[in-house]
Write a structure and sequence with these properties.
The chain has 147 residues and is an alpha+beta fold. Helices cover 19% and strands 43% of the residues. The chain has an eight-stranded antiparallel beta sheet, with no helix packed on it. The chain is globular. The two termini are 25 Å apart.
């Protein structure tokens, strides 16, 4: 790639980042100087798709939060209807302890159980079938690369 093309690309990226930072700053000022997190307590978020040239909305995704603001259910849809639902159970520390995946007929497919390390990050994920047979074990490794 030619040097002037690289410089133009870097200038464009810089301009985009500047615009983004200015937008975030304006938002922060409008909300009292800090960027506020959305209150998720008892919140239901529905995502809708509308095809170009159409006014028909189709439900795409739904997420439900409990009274503590923790995600407890998530569902994915297509034009036919429900594709899957995930239900989340939380342990004593507030982290997700189990994730249950149901199919379009609300039949349990898999169960994931999680263990966390001392920093609150996922350590191990166990995946079971609907009858409780262990299918997979996933270990998480966190490595800080020197820069």
């Amino acid at each position: 790639m030619k040097r002037h093309t690289i410089y133009r690309a870097l200038a464009l990226v810089g301009a985009l980042l500047s615009t983004l930072l200015l937008s975030l700053g304006a938002f922060a000022q409008e909300s009292g100087g800090t960027v506020e997190k959305i209150n998720k307590k008892n919140l239901v978020i529905k995502e809708w798709n509308t095809a170009a040239g159409s006014s028909r909305k189709v439900l795409d995704h739904k997420t439900i939060y409990n009274s503590e603001g923790k995600k407890i259910e998530e569902s994915e849809y297509d034009s036919v209807g429900l594709k899957w639902t995930k239900k989340y159970e939380h342990g004593p520390g507030g982290k997700v302890s189990r994730e249950l995946l149901y199919n379009e007929k609300n039949k349990l497919q898999t169960i994931k159980k999680f263990e966390y390390n001392e920093f609150g990050r996922k350590k191990v994920q166990y995946t079971y079938d609907a009858k409780g047979k262990l299918l997979t074990v996933k270990n998480f490794e966190y490595i800080m690369e020197d820069q």
